[in-house]
């Protein structure tokens, strides 16, 4: 009896335990089976020995990770506060030495965002810490818990593993070229690699496994670096309290079975079970544990203004996520620049920028009367918006006001019927 669809189960190791189940059209099924025999490689995670399926080489993963890292830092307020940067790099470099991965080009940055209680690592050893996690970490030992966890993600190649799973899901619905070809979304997928969800029972449970694995490996890394792994219990207790405060405000915290992270009770039980293993590697360092700077040192007027500008840029990007919102944003930017909206639409596509970034760059060029190419070149170099405003003779407050007006205008235009004022060059998604 002919079948209209088929399933393929991907597994590694002697256990035969399935790593991923993919459903697809029968026409692609036979081709994918042949393809996987050539591409699929089984890796083993450090410390835990867990089998991993990899469809991307480590070199490809690192290249995508570094590209993603540049994107994130370019659209963030990177802090140069001396003490914060010094302590983060000191702890990070000790954790990196314990990881013993000399072929990674390790880099540790501080992002000035007190509302973001987080840190992240991308493939290849690029790690960033948001200042919002400083009150949770408190000191360099607590920071070692955070950085040990993030370095463990990179060391265990979790992003490559998640990207491989995503590629398999894409193969089931989009074909080989969309998943493995010159896909501009791959770098973005690396950014999402720790939270990507393709459906319950496929991706999300795996992510919980990876998070737990990063906890276990991270404990060993921090112990090898000379930090007491028992501190992890205190850090995650403070994290739980912080999360509960946030959840009480927005009531959006998901239950554990829908979350990509283990619940705090589960995490604490696991940590208690793994700490004795980590203590075998712990040799206390004869040094004073340094305290992390308070958030007040990051709150200069220029930093506040730039953080607000970044929020408005992202707000414009969110407004443009659907076709009606995109049309409203395009018209609002055109109105603000006194430019035909179809020109805005086409130019933004050519530059491959978010609408928020595009609007801010064009506005900075207009306010400072500088060529767009010069402003764009500085943006690509990673200069801050404050520095770019100063270089190009504009005021950050003016740019803030302009972006606020774009948001308001787009909000007023959203949902209003339009014939097609943007011309033949404009097509909604």
Your description of this structure?
The protein is mostly helical and 429 residues long. It has 18 helices and seven strands. It has helices at residues 26-39, 58-74, 82-99, 134-137, 140-155, 158-173, 176-180, 186-191, 204-224, 231-250, 264-279, 301-319, 323-337, 341-351, 355-368, 372-381, 385-391, 396-413, and strands at 5-11, 18-25, 41-44, 51-54, 107-111, 119-122, 126-130. The strands form three sheets. It has a three-stranded mixed β-sheet. A two-stranded antiparallel ribbon has the order 1-2. Strand 3 (41-44) and strand 4 (51-54) form a beta hairpin. Helix 13 (323-337) crosses helix 14 (341-351), helix 15 (355-368) crosses helix 16 (372-381) and helix 15 packs across helix 18 (396-413). The longest helix is centred in the middle third of the chain and has 21 residues, at 204-224. The chain is globular.
- Taking all residues together, what is the mean pLDDT? 82
- Helix proportion range: 55-70%
Describe the strand arrangement of the main beta sheet, using strand numbers. Answer: 5-7-6
Distance between the termini: 40 Å
